[in-house]
Amino acid sequence: xxxxxxxxxxxxxxxxxxxxxxxxxxxxxxxxxxxxxxxxxxxxxxxxxxxxxxxxxxxxxxxxxxxxxxxxxxxxxxxxxxxxxxxxxxxxxxxxxxxxxxxxxxxxxxxxxxxxxxxxxxxxxxxxxxxxxxxxxxxxxxxxxxxxxxxxxxxxxxxxxxxxxxxxxxxxxxxxxxxxxxxxxxxxxxxxxxxxxxxxxxxxxxxxxxxxxxxxxxxxxxxxxxxxxxxxxxxxxxxxxxxxxxxxxxxxxxxxxxxxxxxxxxxxxxxxxxxxxxxxxxxxxxxxxxxxxxxxxxxxxxxxxxxxxxxxxxxxxxxxxxxxxxxxxxxxxxxxxxxxxxxxxxxxxxxxxxxxxxxxxxxxxxxxxxxxxxxxxxxxxxxxxxxxxxxxxxxxxxxxxxxxxxxxxxxxxxxxxxxxxxxxxxxxxxxxxxxxxxxxxxxxxxxxxxxxxxxxxxxxxxxxxxxxxxxxxxxxxxxxxxxxxxxxxxxxxxxxxxxxxxxxxxxxxxxxxxxxxxxxxxxxxxxxxxxxxxxxxxxxxxxxxxxxxxxxxxxxxxxxxxxxxxxxxxxxxxxxxxxxxxxxxxxxxxxxxxxxxxxxxxxxxxxxxxxxxxxxxxxxxxxxxxxxxxxxxxxxxxxxxxxxxxxxxxx
Amino acid sequence: xxxxxxxxxxxxxxxxxxxxxxxxxxxxxxxxxxxxxxxxxxxxxxxxxxxxxxxxxxxxxxxxxxxxxxxxxxxxxxxxxxxxxxxxxxxxxxxxxxxxxxxxxxxxxxxxxxxxxxxxxxxxxxxxxxxxxxxxxxxxxxxxxxxxxxxxxxxxxxxxxxxxxxxxxxxxxxxxxxxxxxxxxxxxxxxxxxxxxxxxxxxxxxxxxxxxxxxxxxxxxxxxxxxxxxxxxxxxxxxxxxxxxxxxxxxxxxxxxxxxxxxxxxxxxxxxxxxxxxxxxxxxxxxxxxxxxxxxxxxxxxxxxxxxxxxxxxxxxx
Lengths: 651, 318
Hints:
The complex is a heterodimer of chains A (651) and B (318). Chain A is of the alpha+beta class. Chain A contains 17 helices and 20 strands. Chain A has 3 domains: 2-180, no CATH class; 221-360 and 367-374 and 381-490, no CATH class; 552-644, no CATH class. In chain A, strands 2, 6, 7, 9, 10, 13, 17 and 18 form an 8-stranded antiparallel β-sheet that branches. In chain A, strands 8-3-16-19-20 form a 5-stranded antiparallel β-sheet. In chain A, strands 1-5-4 form a 3-stranded antiparallel β-sheet, with no helix packed on it. In chain A, α4 (78-94) runs antiparallel to α5 (100-120). Chain B has helices at 4-16, 26-45, 48-72, 227-233, 259-278, 299-311; strands at 21-24, 76-80, 91-98, 104-111, 121-126, 132-138, 144-155, 162-176, 195-197, 210-215, 237-241, 248-253, 282-287, 292-296. Chain B is elongated, with a radius of gyration of 30 Å. Chain B is of the alpha+beta class and 318 residues long. At the A-B interface, α5, α6 and α7 of A face α2, α3, β4 and β5 of B.
């Protein structure tokens, strides 16, 4: 009974892991998650309300028909509908009367969910769920097969031993098949899936409204990753990723308008010169926007690809009048190349731009120009004024993610009432103060920083940032009034460390599994060929001596464990025989020849002693090994009865 | 030690017989369909995660083969045959399974004989170094020796996707005795059928003349008590008869009758012989083929006669 309960719990948990593999895509409808969670709870509580499966199967059929009607009306994705069907089927079977056949059905329906998850998601969590599903499904299915054979079932640990070996072999085999199975479709990049759990969160929109939500700062999801050339080789990048610029402020929100250029394969925003930095950027599904970003002052955008569903394709780019560059067309994820110049080398601006960048809101609080005057006092050049205003805001105002609520003039509220705000309020205040001093300025939104992982820089939603570009002496001067410690994502300490490790795993997963391609297979084959000595092996890197040392150490440990186990087993048998002989000699039940077979142990209460002798003979001569600790138990029992037993010996 | 041509013939036969047989279960068939489906989906879309799931499924099939092989290897089997199975009556067929090392799981055993394949013994666990006996109820339609040549052992372990079977060559003979039928009320006339009786009984108990009455000792058969005298004397008295020989009856069976008629005759004679032996008679049997069982009394004689009747018509194996 206990074993049956264990089998069912393992089966239901395997099903929940399979459902998780699907649900991490974030595309499974909430009502399906709710129904499955409910079914899982009921099943884990040991209740099987759908013992008569006919009525529930009828209901299931109706729901499935409804789902596929939605698919026919293009209201639901076909793959999602299939996944939901598998989830409902699994839930129905989980609540049916348990039995080996039902167990098989639950595991097969769960396998369908895993396949659905593979089609929907590319998240690392999928790998975790797949692993858990494999382990639990193998164990539960093995127990089900043994239980189906009837009779007294063996102890669980006895069944688990070969099953655990089976799990390990399954996983190794799966990886081997994965590597060697030829990628005949030539589709080198798999589906990026959706934004995983939760909505996409780049935070870009057509306007920037003050008093907006500040929770982005604590959002740890990676929204894009970038490979830089030349690589600055820093753990933490001190760089600004430009998304879009706003130059018109109406007192509450920033905007930028203008005509767009036709879609092109390459977009040039300015000339490239010495010191350009090339970047290969992949915007992940969590990014949730089509606006491209680039380091410092992006100049050339090119080689854009959109990853939609199971295929990738080249796509065009559109340049907007505010300098924003967008991908032309929808997609789950995008990748592109961008070349940037350091911002100090960029020259701007046309006369009409300057007019917009000097315009003040019509209802500007009169205290603001006065404040600008006061803060800029003493500075003589525009550059000095700009730097002085930047420093004043950094030092006199505090950073907070708490919202001011509904206020009529959020800028005045920030500068004179709360004296605390987040990066958008700092940037707005600096831009308007600069304008009051006659310096053209605009607000830029994008990202700040980036963590290095696996040779790339990861940028999170929490790295979203706003700053200011001022036009000084015909050049762009970047100013950031936000206190430096509050510019990047808020995650710190252990959380940050864990996130970094997770992201490194995620990158490895994406590169080595999700994007594994025919060319990778060819490279791998090349490596093996070169180790055979038939090639010069330029691509083959001889493994580090440390790797050989680790492999050697592992082999030595395995050999040592095997030797110790063999020794202990042999030794335990010998010890059992010798100890029994000593005990029997001491109690006068064994002759001087020491033959255990001739021991006088015929009394009924000396059964443990006879059992010990029999097991010794079996283990020594019959190859029926002692179980771990069995020798010790046998000796203890024999000692107990010999001490307590009758003193009179049989004649 | 058999001759080299016989060994060569065995080797040749073994060459054409696969060492293991594999059969898919319902779950296994669905699993294979899913594997093909996911494989096609992976090839069509190039989705690497589908390739990963496909790899897992293929590995599962391979591991299933490895673990089931491990469960079937090194198995030893010994038949535990019933003493006196009768045709058309269910009896327990047993197999003693053992293996020196390694555990066996979810094993099922049956005979590779057309009439006995439905009798399947099941065993959830076979620990190493122990012998476990599994039994199944079997029924054989006709009397006679049944040559058992091999036993098939199967397992669905570990995943229940496939049932792998292994045939072990174990030769035994199961002698099925004639079916039990009611004994005829009167002995058949000598010319009335395939079987005949040479001499009929005189007395109801087959005993001789009354010799004496003596006190019944502890453990003696109460049926021999003389109740009238016992009641008169107030103590239990036992009848002692002269050592007169029991009635001697020789049954005869004509083996040349048709198979069905012969079976019926054997059944009738077996019932008759058991009834007569039960009443203390000495019963013998002669067969038209020349084989005979000398008249004698007792349970062992009943067994000898039944075995002879079981073999009647099967000549060579007496």
